[in-house]
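Try this one yourself first.
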């Protein structure tokens, strides 16, 4: 892929299309809460819409130089940016680290975390951080041949803690085996990886198979058959639980009547009316302004709905 006339950002995305990067390997290993192996597969194969930068990603990028500056102020370690680099032995492994430590064998990965996510971190100075961050750091340490990775984490909006992980070839080798299978058996052969139980995988499946073609297939796979039965059982159980919860809620509401708060042995319940708010009466608006509304109509892509039913055998 020619990258000579590309901007830095274009080169970054072009390079990511040709290798497994540091943000990909946690997903491939099943350690990411926000991505999956199938998500990475789709990106590498150019399937589905390009990733849109969300608020967390936006602020992570904006905060990176500030976090790096504060890290230097607090540690005295000088930092430098680094270009994209491929692993010396595996050209399908690459990465773009946030910062390299000057004159020391370390790298720095700048992170931001909300107060809610902060509970996943341990004592400052330790390596008690989310496994996805550990895996990303191990990937980069092997690529850039560095001995440790510091993670300065901006928590909320008023404090920063620094964590450290040291290079561990055993972790890298375990990830390497999964990455090899993914790269050569899935990506290179255009065979999607097996699905997992994540929401990210569900979204990736929608992008991979956005519409049906009217075909009818027969599956003799025991695993698929078990999945269908399990899905139907869980839906029935979910409906039962929903009904039980509704019965309990109605009992509580009936007891409270017009009360705002109810207390009892070991519990406290609040049941208050929210503030009134304005809402567009779209049905009336369309009826009275059909021509104006037509100017703002746009076609929304339909979605596939999974329906199951019991079919007698024999």
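Now uncover the answer:
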């Amino acid at each position: 892929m020619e990258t000579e006339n590309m901007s830095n950002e274009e080169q970054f995305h072009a390079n990511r299309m040709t290798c497994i990067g540091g943000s990909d390997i946690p997903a491939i290993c099943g350690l990411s809460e926000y991505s999956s192996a199938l998500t990475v597969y789709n990106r590498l194969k150019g399937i589905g819409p390009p990733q849109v930068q969300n608020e967390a990603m936006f602020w992570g990028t904006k905060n990176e130089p500030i976090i790096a500056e504060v890290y230097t102020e607090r540690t005295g370690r000088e930092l430098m940016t680094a270009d994209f680099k491929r692993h010396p032995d595996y050209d399908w492994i690459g990465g773009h680290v946030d910062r390299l430590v000057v004159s020391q064998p370390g790298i720095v990965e700048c992170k931001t975390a909300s107060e809610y996510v902060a509970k996943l971190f341990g004592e400052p100075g330790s390596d008690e951080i989310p496994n996805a961050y550990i895996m990303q750091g191990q990937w980069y340490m092997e690529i850039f041949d560095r001995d440790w990775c510091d993670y300065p984490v901006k928590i909320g909006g008023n404090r920063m803690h620094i964590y450290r992980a040291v290079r561990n070839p055993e972790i890298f080798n375990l990830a390497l085996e999964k990455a090899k299978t993914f790269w050569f058996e899935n990506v290179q052969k255009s065979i999607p990886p097996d699905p997992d139980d994540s929401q990210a995988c569900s979204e990736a499946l929608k992008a991979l198979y956005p519409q049906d073609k009217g075909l009818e297939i027969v599956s003799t796979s025991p695993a698929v058959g078990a999945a269908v039965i399990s899905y139907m059982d869980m839906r029935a159980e979910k409906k039962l639980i929903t009904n039980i919860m509704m019965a309990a809620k109605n009992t509580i509401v009936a007891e409270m009547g017009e009360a705002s708060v109810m207390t009892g042995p070991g519990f406290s319940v609040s049941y208050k009316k929210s503030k009134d708010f304005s809402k567009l009466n779209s049905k009336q608006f369309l009826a009275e302004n059909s021509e104006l509304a037509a100017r703002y109509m746009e076609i929304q892509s339909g979605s596939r709905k999974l329906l199951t039913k019991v079919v007698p055998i024999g």
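Discussion: Strands lie at 79-80, 85-86, 94-95, 99-101, 106-108, 111-113, 148-155, 159-166, 261-264, 267-270. The longest helix spans residues 222-256.
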